[in-house]
Amino acid sequence: MKHLLPVVGFLFAVHTTQAQQEPGDLKSVQETAKSYIKQGDYSNAVLVLNRALQNNSDNLELQKDLAFAYYLNRDYAHGLEVAKKFPERSDADVQSFQVLGMLYKAIEEVKDCEKMYKAALKKFPNSGTLYNEYGEMMWSKKAFSDAIKLWEKGIETDPNYSGNYYNAAKYYYFTPDKVWALIYGEIFVNLESYSKRTAEIKNILLDGYKKLFTDANIYKDQDTKNEFVKAFLDGMKAQSSFISTSGVTPETLSAVRTKFILDWFSKNATKFPFRLYEHHQQLLKSGMFDAYNQWVFGTASNLPAYENWTKTHQEEYNKFDYFQHNRVFKLPAGQYYQTIK
Hints:
The protein is mainly α. It has 19 helices and no strands. It is elongated and about 70 Å long.
């Protein structure tokens, strides 16, 4: 249930615009159903949507909303009765398959769910949402290598969908890998900057840097045949002296990462153009990189110290905070450097 509120908002936001052109003021119906769902009154949402479908029986938007309301009401049988018809429709969209997948997973109907995701991805091969949720299903059946391959494919084909970065970062954090939890985790907190999941990933980022610098041999058990990984590790190793004397703190990480970015743009940026590091460079040039590193690592490291930093560096903090709330972090296609087998 942890992702329900974003899904509710997304489904109804998409549908409302389309519903304005439908007969019978379907916009009003959907707003009423949405209001009931927000209140947790799923039965009334079901009632309103069923009534509307009596005069609009083939309306996909209402059907999706109804199937989702049934899901929230834990009436999975009726929800599946509605949603099983979605794949047969020529106008079925990603959300249609998403709702059907949620219902299949709720009753642990793994075979039908997997079959559905495969069909959905043939129709929508660049959907980060579908790769993410298919990966979560494979994870639930302990098919871990299949799950990470799906999340990686989602990152490669739909680089601005945050969910795949979230799951991939957590996966790599619990493996010997020292690189991709840091890369994917930091991309995630820039795509999804103010959620409960953001706080979780910030903890992983701080611990991930401790993991990176704990072993004297930074290359141990790493995929150094991957040239991007090798360049990353080379750059971090060159700056490890900042860590050896003071440990891993927001301040030492800011120093390490400042020198790392300067070196990256002198040695690797042409071969490996990378939006995350271009973002770092922009923050450096604007005098906001220290504040950014405090934002990424400070709350996970020591919340009172972070709060004190924001007070003693109020102008710097306010400048970054305004920037962070008003910028759009967007990754271009083609900057995918993982070589997972």
